[in-house]
C-alpha cells in the first residue's frame, strides 16, 4: 500500500508545483504588461507611454478614444455634453487642463491634449502627455493615429477600410437617385448669424463631400472650402443653399427664421429637400459620429 501511495504523493507534489509556477508566470506576465512602455512618435517628438494605457484622460480626441473602447477616466466638457457618448461616459469625470488637482486625483497613465492648451508642461509632470493639433491630420488618419497610441492600430485601420467602403457605396446610391450634379449645403446658425461649411468641419461634411463625393454649390466652394466655415447673414443665405440642405440644428438656439419668407422660398425647402441633424451630436469626426451620420444620410436621401 505504501509503495502505491508514494508515486501518488509525488504526482500530487508535481501538480502543485506546476500550478504554483503557472500562477507566478501569470503574475509576472501581468506585472510586465502593467510596467511595459513603448515609445510613441508624437508630433512634438518621442513620448514614452504605457504599451496598454489603462487610465486615460482625454482633454482632446476623446471621441476617437471612445470608438476604440479606451478606458477614459477624465473627459473634456464638450465631449461630455454630446448625446452620442452619454452611455459610454457614465461615471467619467469632467476635467479641464486647468483642473490639475482633479487630474492628479484620477491617477492617469496617459493624457491626450490639444496643442493649443497652455498647461502641457504641467500635464507632462503628472503623466505622459501626447499632443495633437486639430486639423493637422485628416479625419481618417486621426483615427489610425489614436489606434497607434492605444496599441489598437489594426482595429482602427479595419474601421477605416470598412467605413470607406460603406460610404462609397452609399454615395453611389445617393448620386444615382438625386443626380450627379445635385448640390448639397451644410448650414448652422446661432442667435445672430448663419454658417455654411466646407468639406472638413464635422457636421457630416467629411462624409458628404469626401467619402460620398457629393457636390457643394459653387458659392460655398468659393467661400467655405479653404477656411472650412464661412459666416453669412440670413439675407444672403439663399445664395449658398444647394439642391439639398443639411441643417445642423442646435436645440438650444432660437430658430424663428424658419418662419420667414426668405427661408420658405429657398428651393430646397420648398421641395422638402432639407434634413435636420442635431448639432450637439455632429461636431466631431470620430467613428461613432461618422457611423451615426452615415446611416442618417443614407436613409434621408434615399427615402426622400
UniProtKB/TrEMBL annotation:
Residues 1-18 form the signal peptide. Residues 24-35 have a biased composition (Basic and acidic residues). GO terms for biological process: iron coordination entity transport. Residues 55-304 form the Fe/B12 periplasmic-binding domain. The keyword Transport applies. Coiled coil: none annotated. SUPFAM superfamilies: Helical backbone' metal receptor. Its main location: membrane. It is found in: Cell membrane. It is a lipid-anchor. It holds the Pfam family Peripla_BP_2. PANTHER family: IRON III DICITRATE-BINDING PERIPLASMIC PROTEIN (PTHR30532), IRON(3+)-HYDROXAMATE-BINDING PROTEIN FHUD (PTHR30532:SF26). Belongs to the bacterial solute-binding protein 8 family. This is ABC transporter substrate-binding protein.
Amino acid at each position: 500500500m505504501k509503495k502505491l501511495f508514494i508515486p501518488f504523493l509525488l504526482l500530487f507534489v508535481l501538480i502543485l508545483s506546476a500550478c504554483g509556477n503557472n500562477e507566478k508566470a501569470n503574475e509576472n506576465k501581468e506585472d510586465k504588461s502593467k510596467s511595459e512602455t513603448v515609445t510613441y512618435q508624437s508630433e512634438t517628438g518621442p513620448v514614452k507611454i504605457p504599451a496598454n494605457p489603462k487610465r486615460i484622460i482625454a482633454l482632446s480626441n476623446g471621441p476617437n478614444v471612445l470608438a476604440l473602447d479606451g478606458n477614459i477616466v477624465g473627459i473634456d466638457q464638450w465631449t461630455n455634453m454630446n448625446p452620442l457618448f452619454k452611455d459610454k461616459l457614465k461615471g467619467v469625470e469632467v476635467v479641464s487642463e486647468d483642473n490639475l488637482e482633479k487630474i492628479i486625483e484620477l491617477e492617469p497613465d496617459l493624457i491626450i491634449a490639444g496643442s493649443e492648451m497652455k498647461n502641457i508642461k504641467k500635464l507632462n509632470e503628472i503623466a505622459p502627455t501626447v499632443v495633437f493639433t486639430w486639423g493637422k491630420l485628416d479625419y481618417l488618419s486621426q483615427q489610425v493615429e489614436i489606434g497607434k497610441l492605444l496599441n489598437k492600430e489594426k482595429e482602427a485601420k479595419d474601421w477605416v477600410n470598412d467605413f470607406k467602403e460603406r460610404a462609397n457605396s452609399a454615395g453611389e446610391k445617393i448620386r444615382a437617385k438625386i443626380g450627379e450634379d445635385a448640390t448639397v449645403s451644410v448650414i448652422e446658425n446661432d442667435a445672430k448669424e448663419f454658417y455654411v461649411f466646407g468639406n472638413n468641419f464635422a457636421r457630416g461634411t467629411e462624409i458628404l463631400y469626401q467619402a460620398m463625393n457629393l457636390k457643394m454649390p459653387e458659392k460655398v466652394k468659393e467661400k467655405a472650402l479653404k477656411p472650412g466655415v464661412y459666416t453669412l447673414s440670413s439675407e444672403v443665405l439663399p445664395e449658398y443653399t444647394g439642391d439639398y440642405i443639411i441643417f445642423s440644428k442646435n436645440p438650444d438656439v432660437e430658430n424663428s427664421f424658419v418662419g420667414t419668407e426668405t427661408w420658405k422660398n429657398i428651393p430646397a425647402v420648398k421641395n422638402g429637400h432639407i434634413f435636420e441633424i442635431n448639432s450637439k451630436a455632429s461636431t466631431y469626426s470620430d467613428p461613432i459620429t461618422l457611423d451615426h451620420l452615415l446611416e442618417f444620410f443614407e436613409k434621408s436621401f434615399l427615402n426622400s
